Amino acid sequence: MSLLAWSAVALVVVGLFFTIVAAVGLIRLPDLYTRAHATSKADTLGTLLTLAGVAVVFQSGVPRIKLGLLAVFMLITTPTATHAITRAAHDQGIAPWVLGGDEE
Amino acid sequence: MSNHNPETERVERPYTESSVIMTTVRVVAPFVFTYGLFVMFHGASSSGGGFQGGAIVAAMVLMLAFAFGIEPTQRWFKNTAIVLLATGGVLAFLFIGVGPLLLDGTFLEYSAYGFKKAPKYGIEGVELGIGAIVASVISGLFFAIARGFEYTEGQQ
């Protein structure tokens, strides 16, 4: 395989690693706020890296422009969605998990 | 919620809008509406179609409602507009689909009216009609559900 193909594979694999980190964080972390923290950051980075890997594969211009737009909108909307969810949770009075606090 | 005092739970706090959400929705809205139309028109030649495009447009209406409040959004997207869009979509489909039957054609025979490039524009017209129906019905259902919740809370 050429260097381009290998770099695309590497980008996708690293992106998948961050997506798995996000999934593990979603399952393992104790409450909504920490889970949102883990998923929003790691998932955004994983998505962007995977899109970058796909952009390396496409040689022509138009798919790359589409992928760039997709990346920009993912970068804007994913953190905003997380912000909206955590803000609504805070608004509803859901207490954040603290070390040594009562666990349910 | 169960360990809350019911009296403090009833307190109607004024909802303070988040500037982050409002700015994002304001920036993204025109692109998402354009993307919805793009998906509707692509139904003829590639993946996409009226249902998906309509769902995207309706999702944007829901996002506007979440960001700016349901009441202002409904003042902007009135019930009459919703009904008109749904009816217009059905009429467009009837015109394109059933209309040829009256002109001795078959169901959805696009070339019956004698337009140029009739199949292309016929499919896109049908997709656009379906998109209008889906978008208006989903946002209408959302507004109806939102109104229902307010009503039951007022009753208690």
Structure, explained:
The complex is a heterodimer of chains A (104) and B (156). Helix content of chain A is 80%, strand content 0%. Chain A has 104 residues and is mainly alpha-helical. Chain A has one domain. The model of chain A has no long low-confidence stretch (mean pLDDT 89). Chain B is mostly helical. Chain B has one domain (6-155). Helices cover 75% and strands 0% of the residues of chain B.
Strand content of chain B: under 5%
User: Helix coverage percent of residues of chain B?
Assistant: over 70%
Give the beta-strand count of chain B: 0
User: Structural class of the secondary structure composition of chain A?
Assistant: mainly alpha
Q: How many strands, which pairing sense, and closed or not: the largest β-sheet of chain A?
A: none
SSE pattern of chain A: HHH
Quick tags:
heterodimer; A: 104 residues; mainly alpha; 3 helices; 0% strand; B: 156 residues; 6 helices; 75% helix; elongated; disordered N terminus
Quick summary of this structure?
The complex is a heterodimer of chains A (104) and B (156). Chain A is mainly alpha-helical.
Break the fold down into its secondary structure elements and pairings.
The complex is a heterodimer of chains A (104) and B (156).
Chain A: H1 3-28, H2 32-57, H3 61-91
Helix pairs in contact in A: 1-2, 2-3
Chain B: H1 6-10, H2 19-42, H3 50-68, H4 70-76, H5 79-102, H6 118-155
Helix pairs in contact in B: 2-3, 2-6, 3-4, 3-6, 5-6
